[in-house]
Amino acid sequence: MSQERREKKRQKKRKYRIALICSIMLYLVFRSVPSFLATSYRTIVPEQGVLTDKIVTQGIILKNEKVYKADSSGKLEILVKEGERIPAGKQIAHISLLNDTSQLKQELNEIENSITALKKSEKEKELLKVDESKLGENIEDLILNIQENINKGQYAEVQYTKDKLSLYDSKAKDISGEKTLLNQSLDNLNKRKEEIEKDIKSNNINYYSSNGGIVSFNIDGYEEVYYPKEFENYTYDKIDILEKDKKNEKPKVDVSVGDPLFKIIDNFEWYMAIKIEDLKDIKSFEKGQSITLFMDETKKEIKGKILSINITKNKAVMVIKFTTLFHEYYDYRFSTVEIVKYKKEGLKIPSKAIVEKDGIKGVYIKEISGIVKFRPIKVLGEDDKYTYVQKGDNRGFIKLEDEKNPIKTITLYDEIFLNTMNIKEGQILD
């Protein structure tokens, strides 16, 4: 084969390979077009959403608190638990004075055990009376037998009967209870018990709650500084908020005169003085208005009432009254607070789906028939990647500025196009 023929054959193979590769590439391109179009025409439906605007600041909890202090030195014993709700008149603690009452307490314990045992033995005593009656009859029979044996001269039988009589007599004395607990007087035991209790009590100081509330041993020293009175005096320059609360452990056992023991906090009403850094943040709030906030410790929603707004230049302090959830915050003094400025319910949609047509903001939706429609929206606000828009009325219409008549907007079930690059109103899509 000549050189020229071999070269033509190589060129032919090369062209064939190029044609094959091009065919494969064209095939892959055509296969990818539907996927590309599907991606371009991806839709989502709106979600129910709530847009919230908050002010993050700091607050001081104001509580009605009464601190109880030691009236004498001695050993302290606490009778209730931290955080327990107690009524008025309940004993909370007592202090044992330094006099030694250990022997009295030991005697009291023995007497109480004796009284318990004596009461339990009442039924047993009734049963023993029955046995005692039977023994008496047996003893009488033995005495008659002794007399008969003496008359008959049967002295061996007499001695045997006497021994048996001695045994029965001993048993009868046991049953009668001589020199036993059953022979003692229950009245005498109770009388001695009262005397000992009186002696022990004279060496104790008892502490009772003067009012109902929550018991706490965390006495931070602010009880008489931050209290719910004279609310107008809580101004921005007069309150000092610490980053962390002072936490005290349970009171020590050995106490001296004047040592704080515990406190009782009114759990029906509590208050908070909240610092406001910029008056513009609270321009929509007024005295007497309801307010919603979240506290950093639990993130639970709390509702209260504004009692006072104390303004100092461009800053302020709001004093708020609460009547619920105090059991979750009774042990706090300082807290991070989120004040809810407003809550707006609406439909939540991705911000990138929003377009503008003829100066009106809206989105493109796909109707059931596959026709693309433009739907105007009324924006409530934004956060991150989402926009909150107003819901329509019961017919799905909203009122826009510069428009005389209401216009149909999106509904909860509309399919909204995310990518609007190749979308036009009136376009028909399968």
Notes on the protein architecture:
- The chain is an alpha+beta fold and 430 residues long.
- 30% of the residues lie in helices and 31% in strands.
- Helix 2 (102-152) packs antiparallel against helix 3 (155-176) and helix 2 (102-152) runs antiparallel to helix 4 (186-201).
- The model is unreliable at 32-39 and 177-183 (pLDDT under 50).
- Residues 270-342 form the RND related beta-barrel domain.
- InterPro entries: Beta-barrel_RND-rel, BSH_RND-rel, HH_RND-rel.
- Residues 65-266 form the RND related barrel-sandwich hybrid domain.
- This is HlyD family efflux transporter periplasmic adaptor subunit.
What's the structural blueprint in terms of helices and strands?
Layout: H1 3-40, E1 43-44, E2 47-62, E3 65-69, E4 74-78, E5 85-86, E6 91-96, H2 102-152, H3 155-176, H4 186-201, E7 204-208, E8 213-216, E9 254-255, E10 260-265, E11 270-276, E12 290-295, E13 301-312, E14 315-322, E15 334-350, E16 355-357, E17 360-366, E18 372-376, E19 379-383, E20 386-389, E21 397-398, E22 407-408, E23 415-417
Antiparallel strand pairs: 1-23, 2-11, 2-15, 3-10, 4-6, 4-9, 5-8, 6-7, 8-10, 11-14, 12-13, 12-15, 13-14, 15-20, 16-17, 17-18, 17-23, 19-20, 21-22
Helix pairs in contact: 2-3, 2-4
